[in-house]
Amino acid sequence: MFSDNLGFSVSVEQYAERHYIKEFNKKYGSWKITWKGLLEVLSRFDAIKLGSVVEMISQNSSHSQLIYKYEFRIAEQQVSAKASGNRMIILVDTSIRLIRVLLVYHKNNVRGSRETDWWKGEIKNNYPELSWLN
Q1: What residues contact residue 46 under an 8 Å CB cut-off, 6+ apart?
Q2: In the chain, what are the domains?
Q3: Which of 94, 91, 98, 40 is nearest to 69 (CA)?
Q4: Distance CA 19, CA 11 (A)
Q5: How do residues 13-33 score in pLDDT, each as one tens digit?
Q6: What is the DSSP string of the chain?
Q7: Cα(18)–Cα(31) distance, integer angstroms
Q8: pLDDT class of 112 with cuts at 50, 70, 90
Q9: Which of 52, 97, 130, 131 has the greatest CB tally within 10 Å of its CB?
């Protein structure tokens, strides 16, 4: 769990850690720097949620839990976050100021032709408590 006194606590789910984060770590020498930076940025989510790399996808009925897709780039890579193909699906729980990293992937990890359908399936299959996701 990553936390600072300014914003949100950030936790990384085991599913996210076991699957694609492990792959990023093997593939990119600068992954540890990237990951540390991403966790710091997420902890200050209020400041970034209006940017072009963050898109709100869904929210629960009380509007206290929101799912966002966050595009990011790898440190030392000369490509924009959007063009990089790197994505993160996060759950932002505003009632307890917690961000859960649910999925971190590259577009090449997507099975099938529809990215959104793929990651929604991954979330529904691995996080049954998020059955409200539409």
Answers
A1: 7, 8
A2: 2-130 (3.30.2310.20)
A3: 91
A4: 16
A5: 999 999 889 889 888 888 999
A6: -EE-TTS-EEEE-HHHIIIIIHHHHHH-TTHHHHHHHHHHHHHTHHHHTTSTTEEEEEE-TTSSEEEEEEEE--TT--S-HHHH-EEEEEEEETTTTEEEEEEEEEGGG--SS-HHHHHHHHHHHH-GGGTT--
A7: 15
A8: confident
A9: 130
- Calpha distance 60→70 (Å, rounded): 18
- Please answer whether residues 33 and 79 qualify as being in contact, where contact means their C-beta atoms are separated by less than 8 angstroms: no
What's the whole-model pTM score? 0.89
Residue 42: both structure tokens together: 């997420």
